[in-house]
Design goal:
InterPro entries: AAA+_ATPase, ABC_transporter-like_ATP-bd, ABC_transporter-like_CS, Mo/tungstate-bd_C_term_dom, Molybdenum_import_ModC, Mop_domain, P-loop_NTPase, Transp-assoc_OB_typ1. With about 350 residues, this protein is α+β, with helices and mostly antiparallel strands. The protein is about 25% helix and about 30% strand. The chain has 2 domains: about 5-220, 3-Layer(aba) Sandwich (Rossmann fold), CATH 3.40.50; about 235-355, RNA polymerase II/Efflux pump adaptor protein, barrel-sandwich hybrid domain (OB fold (Dihydrolipoamide Acetyltransferase, E2P)).
Length: about 350
Amino acid sequence: MSGLTARARVGSRGLDVELAVAPGEVLAVLGPNGAGKSTLLDVVAGLLRPDDGRVVLDDRVLTDTKTDVAVPPHQRSVGLLAQEPLLFPHLTVRENVAFAPRSAGRGRHESYATATRWLDEVEMAGFADRRPRRLSGGQAQRVAVARALAAEPGLLLLDEPMAALDVGAAPAVRALLRRVLRSDDRTAILVTHDVLDALSLADRAVVIDRGKIVEEGPVERVLTRPRSTFAARIAGINLLSGKLGADGVETVAGLVHGTTEDACTPGDGAVAVFGPTAVAVHRAHPEGSPRNVFRVRITEITGIGGHTIRVRAEDHADGSPGLIADVTAGAVAELDLATGEDVWFAVKATEVAVYPTA
């Protein structure tokens, strides 16, 4: 078993990527809307022929533009779980799940036995005779999981499978997917915008931006030590990128001081990363120890749970996300903060990590 290797260039959509997924590994694909995530899945699934590319799953060539190989989607051993369950409305739950093995040429009895096994696995056996219209969103997505797995795919593609679920159904489906993926060591690609999905389900993550992979590594590292703007944004972490100088990182927000990794070399690209809880908000320029002080304009003040308030500054001149500070409700009241006002954000150098860009 060699897992998946995929290389794809789609000129009309600006995609040019190359990646590998080891057997039994779950790879999270992150990135902003329009970055090329769904295009990548379409290429792997055989729904889109790349201008140039090669897709190999478990030593079987599925796509090769140089030798004109293009295995049809239904013959690829690739399962797809999308945002919407897409169940056949005229079939029962059992018939929906049995559709995959039936399409593979198995008999009715064997296909129904397979459907029953997977419905039991996703805790939907009691709904086998219902039509999809009588299911809740979470129940329908469970059936969709069973249907995808009943085909026994060598690779499972998960295209934001929790995006259309309400807040009550999403955790249950997420737990189900985690159990199924971990217990069977399934190879999968997960496209998501949700940090929790990536942390719960994936082993490794890649970040695609403007059609190219700009960052990759273990999920925890990508989300806690991001080297790309998008990863920092979804992780809720401040990131300022620039060039490492003799005394800090030269960024669009000014010179940023921090603790620098040994791998950083002056003159190279670097990022300065710090959490929003490390940011203090001041009405006047702060005195004392903070080495990093930024003049910002407040664009948003929102509660994020408990007594914590997030204060977001306007985006930087280059379009990169503005800084964020997490402070107490008491601090917001004491400072009398409001959107549109100019304040000072201060961060101690000991709270800032500096490391090379990807």
